[in-house]
Specification:
Layout (H helix, E strand, L loop, with lengths): L2 H27 L9 E10 L2 E12 L3 H31 L8 H17 L4 H32 L1
Amino acid sequence: MSLSGVLNSASSGLDSVARRIATVSQNVANAGTAGYVRESVAVTSATAGGQGMGVRTGVAVRALDERLQADALAASADAVGQQTRSAALAAIDAASGTPGAGFDLPSLLGGLRDAFSRLQSDPANGAQQRVVLNRAEALVNGVNALGQAVSGARQAAQ
């Protein structure tokens, strides 16, 4: 190896050391900075024809904490899952109706039961028969609406 080759190798080595020292200095200076991520610089040997030609210094690369990144992704996925669940339950809750308002399933079922009780006292009463049919139809519509809300929530979740 010629003297200029040796000097070039030494120069590239010194440049590499200077670059790595600057990176370490930056890491130390920003250690207390919120959001700062440690950086590192990779160094590889440079050869030509099997002969050493110095070193190559790579670019500064941010270090990643894989466990922390996995935890962040898991938390994000959990949050999205909770939002999806909340939206689905809100749709089902809306379809269920307000308790006691007359359109919720327990009220509809109670109305049908009451209509049957009145019909039982006078089974031939045509008006009471129509009331039973109307109440039964209202209950069926309520159950269908709730079923559609559950199906819609399931499809939205998928």
